[in-house]
Each structure stands twice: as structure tokens, then as C-alpha cells.
From TrEMBL:
Keywords tagged on the record: Cell membrane, Membrane, Transmembrane, Transmembrane helix, Transport
TM region positions: 12-38, 74-96, 108-128, 157-182, 203-228, 266-287
Gene3D superfamilies: MetI-like
Pfam families in the cross-refs: BPD_transp_1
Subcellular compartments: Cell membrane
Descriptive protein name: Sugar ABC transporter permease
SUPFAM superfamilies (UniProt xref): MetI-like (SSF161098)
Naturally occurring in which organism (per UniProt): Paracoccus fistulariae
Lineage: superkingdom: Bacteria
Similarity comment: family membership: Belongs to the binding-protein-dependent transport system permease family.
Annotated ranges, domain ABC transmembrane type-1: 71-286
């Protein structure tokens, strides 16, 4: 009992300094989330109003083709982005970990796209994928007249054009996170694997990667958070087109709330996005903190 008061008042100045941040988080994030959920059950239009309609906004939401297409697009983009980001990022990190020459220069080059805003990235890749003066035009100028590469103008594959831009920007960050994890591996492990004659790919697959579990979990959460809020790239590259082929949930929310002036519908879509984030955070928190508590 005598130790409890002393522990309570340890680092008191730091705890007092954290009070404004905690209150801000409670009021802004928690309060805003609750407000969003409550008013998603109303028929609010341009301004919020307390006219309850139950789950009708959600029924209408999941009955709207545009929303369903946006979910499908996000699923395609999300799964492929997770796979390719982790694979490419880890491979680049493994290559960089070989103490290559000009490592600092290469690391800067790979990480530089992450410093750009999504709008700039989207505009750059809109230009690169433009069939009139982008990659297709350059290849055809070299004599390959039948070459075709215009994903942003083909509704069936337009989402993959968005994916290319997203991978170009985000893979560098994944590489740096993986490289930091690799640099934390004890050098004796590598020496022991070489002495035992274990092939390098088996060392990575069965020894190194399991040891980097916390790095992979953190990277997974960062990538997934970026996937859920995907908006800027789509607006900059395609504006959701051709048609609704590159529509995403965040853009649907924006258009409902600020263009269609249908606040209730926009908040219902926002609540579904919030639910997806919660589904991501709970397993991460369990893996990150539950295992430590058991240990």
C-alpha cells in the first residue's frame, strides 16, 4: 500500500503535461466519432438534424452501386498494396542490408517519393500513364507501334494504375522500416547460419522474418491505415473515373457530405470506414500488447 502513492506521483510533471493531449483526443476523436455514429441514423441533409430513420441510411448505402464498387476497389487495391509493399519493401531492405556501395544515396532515392504529397504523386503518374505523352508514347516512339499501356483510361484496369502510383510512393517507407528491423538482427545469427550451411533464403524465411514480427505488425498497420483513407491519389489521377471504376469509400463520403449535401448518407459511410479501422486496430492491439502481457 505504501508504494502506491509514490508510483502515482512519479513523473507527475509529464503526466500533467499530457492532460491537454488526452482531453483533446477524448473530445475531438472520441466525441467526433460518437457524433458521426449518432447522426448516421438521421436523415440529415445539408445540416444535421435529429430526425431518426434507423438503419435506412445503411440500407441505402449498401444498395448503392457506387458504394459497393468503391468497397470492391478498396479491397483490390488494399490486398495487392499489402502484398507488394511488404514483398518489395523487404526485398529492397535485404539488398540494402548487404552493405552495398552508395547505400545512403539509394536509400534517399527510394524514400524520396514518400516525401511527396499524394496529390503530387497522383499528378506525376497521371502524366506518366497518359497514352499521348507518357510511357506508351515513349515506347511507341522507339518503334513498338502496337504497344499499349493506358490503365487509367481503361475502366477494367484503372484501379491498377492507382496501385502503381501508391506502390511507388509507399514502398520506400516500408523498405526503411524493414531495413531498421534487419539491422537489429544480431550478427551472430548470420554467422551461425553460415557455419551450419543454411541457405540464405531459409535463414530469412525461418529465422529472420519470425524475429522481425513486431516490425511486420507495425508496418502492416501503417500500410492498412493508408489504404483505408485512400483519397488523394484517386482525385489527382482519375477523379473516380472512368465512370465509377476507381471510386473509393473516402471519396464517396466527401461527395455525399459536401457535393450531394446528404450528411446522413456521408456519415453512414464514415461509420462503416470507422468500423473497418476498429477491425484493424483490435487485432493489432491484441498481437502487440496481449502477447507481451502473457509473456
Amino acid at each position: 500500500m505504501s508504494h502506491r502513492p509514490s508510483r502515482l506521483f512519479q513523473n507527475l510533471s509529464a503526466k500533467v503535461a499530457a492532460i491537454p493531449m488526452v482531453l483533446t483526443a477524448m473530445v475531438v476523436f472520441l466525441g467526433g466519432s460518437l457524433w458521426t455514429i449518432v447522426y448516421s441514423f438521421t436523415d440529415s441533409k445539408m445540416l444535421p438534424r435529429e430526425r431518426w430513420v434507423g438503419f435506412s441510411q445503411y440500407d441505402r448505402l449498401w444498395g448503392t452501386e457506387r458504394w459497393v464498387v468503391s468497397i470492391e476497389n478498396l479491397a483490390i487495391y488494399g490486398v495487392l498494396s499489402l502484398i507488394f509493399s511488404l514483398v518489395i519493401g523487404f526485398v529492397l531492405a535485404a539488398l540494402m542490408d548487404q552493405k552495398i556501395r552508395f547505400e545512403d544515396a539509394f536509400r534517399t532515392i527510394f524514400l524520396y517519393p514518400f516525401a511527396l504529397s499524394f496529390i503530387v504523386t497522383g499528378l506525376v503518374w497521371q502524366w506518366l500513364l497518359n497514352p499521348d505523352f507518357g510511357v506508351q508514347s515513349v515506347i511507341r516512339a522507339l518503334g513498338f507501334d502496337s504497344f499499349t499501356f493506358d490503365p487509367l483510361y481503361n475502366a477494367d484496369i484503372a484501379i491498377y494504375g492507382i496501385l502503381i502510383a501508391g506502390l511507388w510512393q509507399g514502398t520506400g517507407l516500408v523498405m526503411c522500416l524493414m531495413l531498421a528491423g534487419l539491422r537489429g538482427i544480431d550478427e551472430d545469427i548470420w554467422k551461425a547460419a553460415r557455419v551450419d550451411g543454411i541457405p540464405m533464403w531459409k535463414t530469412y524465411l525461418f529465422i529472420v522474418i519470425p524475429m522481425m514480427r513486431p516490425v511486420f505488425i507495425t508496418t502492416l498497420v501503417i500500410i492498412t491505415a493508408g489504404i483505408v483513407k485512400l483519397y488523394d491519389l484517386v482525385v489527382a489521377q482519375t477523379g473516380g473515373g472512368p465512370g465509377i471504376s476507381t471510386e473509393v469509400p473516402a471519396k464517396y463520403v466527401y461527395d455525399m457530405m459536401f457535393r450531394a449535401q446528404n450528411l446522413g448518407q456521408g456519415l453512414a459511410a464514415s461509420t462503416m470506414m470507422l468500423l473497418s479501422v476498429i477491425i484493424i486496430i483490435i487485432p493489432w492491439a491484441y498481437l502487440e500488447f496481449g502477447g507481451k502481457r502473457r509473456g
